Each structure stands twice: as C-alpha cells, then as structure tokens.
Amino acid sequence: MLPAVILLYHRRKHPESWEYKNKNKSALFAATLLIGTFFLFYGSFVEPNLLTVNRQIIDLPGLEKPLKIALISDIHVGDFNKESDTQRIADLILSLNPDLVFVDGDHIFGNYKDDNRIDYLKPLGQVAKKIPTYAVHGNHEYGVGLYDSDIKKRFKLPNKSAEIAQAMRNLDVRYLINETEKITVNGESFLLFGGDEFLIDAVNYESLDKAKLENPELPIIALIHNPTAIYEASKHGIDLVLSGHTHGGQVRLPFIGPAGTIETDLPHAWYQGLVEYNGSKLFVTSGANESGARLRLFNPPEIVLLTIQ
C-alpha cells in the first residue's frame, strides 16, 4: 500500500514527473498496487483463519442408512499452525457430531527444526476419545517433497513417520498403514483401507485384496493422502478414495483454477471435490491449513462433512 501512496503523492507534488505527465497510467499502476496489497493481506492473514465446513453427499452402493464422516487433511502443525489451531479444528469436528473421523495425512509441516510440533496434535485426542478416528500418513510425515525418479532423492527432510504414528496412537487414533478394517456404524458395514504414502511408492493393497475375499459384499472406502493413487486404487475395486495433499491449489484464480500444482500428473479439475475414474469415486479435500507460504485465496481451509449413503 505504501508504494501506491508514495506514487500518488509524488505525482501531486512534482508536475514535471512521469507520474504527473501520465496520470491515467500512474493511477492504474497505483490501483494495481493497492489491490495487490489488499489480496496479499487478505490471503495471508484473513482467509487462512476462515475454517469452513464443506458439506458433501456421496452415493455409495451397499449402504442403506447414511453415515456422517468428518474428513480432515493437511493440518500441518508447525511453523504457522500451533496447538490452538488444532484445538479449533477439534472443537468444530465435535460440534458436527459425525459417526466417524478420518484424518488424511500431512499432520505436520516437515522441516529440520527439532521442536515439539508433534505435541500440537494433542487436541485430536479429545475427538478420538468420543468418536472413532482413523488416520494415515502423508508425505510430510516422511519428509518427502519432490517426485524424483530416484526414490532416495525424494526424502528432503527428516523422516518422522514412526514418531508421528505412535503419537497419534497415544491419542487413541487408529493409525492405518496399508491396513484394512471392517467398520460397522449404525448397523452399516464397509471396508476401510488406509494406504501408506504414495510419493515413496509405499501403498500396498495386499490387506485390502484379502479382506475383499472375506467380505465380497461390502463397499470399500480408501483413505490415501495423495489423490494420484486413484489410478492404481481403481484397479482394486475401491468404491471411494478420500484424499488431500493438493490444498485445492491453495490459491485458486477465477476462471483458471489452482495456481499451485503438485508434483505428479493430476488433472487440475481433480484438485478438489468429487470426480469419477474407471468406476471409482475420488473426493479431494482442500485441507485445513497450508504448507510453504501461509497463503490462501478464494479457497478457504475446510473440514468436510461427508454424508455417505
């Protein structure tokens, strides 16, 4: 904002200046600076704090009674998001009173700092003690960033996956790592597969394939952090894949869509919301917080309240 004010002041006080001689252009330039400053302030300090509830209805064959599931992803506690932010998430989830809670990876914001950021997840224990809560790994748990052909080069930060899994289990969160559980809620049953992290090629469907043989009539929901897994997941008869990771692009531009892109070849139209691929449904949440810059625009953080029926 200050550069725009200086420009206009200089135009007024110095008739010989370029700004004075080009009033229309200087006014347009000043307006652009003011608008840019507004959106930068709003996107950095306002919208990231506007935690919203995104209510979605998804049809899933095999269920007669509706199930309410709170889906949360990309909490990213750490540099920007502290325990108070997780408490706000926990309070909102509890107020929604879902049947189940799914936490879809990237619980921390990975970096080299040796601090207590994992402790910032403690309010999730308040949720897990009242509502069955399931979670899976994301790439930040492993310290993974890029999708290099050499898998060793994908590990950019310390691997805290084992420490985080144990911390979440200590909070009574059921932490799934390539595991499948039969879940029964309100008389309705389905298989839940919790996949490991896609970016380290760790998703293994062996437990799911075995569970399908034992329960061929049950619908299947998969919790996998990276939505790019849909290509392989659809080959295993999964009815619904729930993912995060994209943050919806974090910044979404009108008529364009996500400004930020992820490291794999995923259509931009799949960065948030519900799509179908090869007989499987994929739902991607925009996430609850940010990574990289603390910036969101036209894409507020969210908790998704899914009604599966």
TrEMBL record:
Keywords: Hydrolase, Membrane, Metal-binding, Transmembrane, Transmembrane helix. It holds the Pfam family Metallophos. It comes from the Bacteria. Residues 67-248 form the Calcineurin-like phosphoesterase domain. GO terms for cellular component: membrane. The chain crosses the membrane at residues 27-45. GO terms for molecular function: metal ion binding; UDP-2,3-diacylglucosamine hydrolase activity. This is Calcineurin-like phosphoesterase domain-containing protein. SUPFAM superfamilies: Metallo-dependent phosphatases (SSF56300). One of its GO terms (biological process) is lipid A biosynthetic process. It comes from Candidatus Magasanikbacteria bacterium RIFOXYB1_FULL_40_15. Gene3D superfamilies: 3.60.21.10.
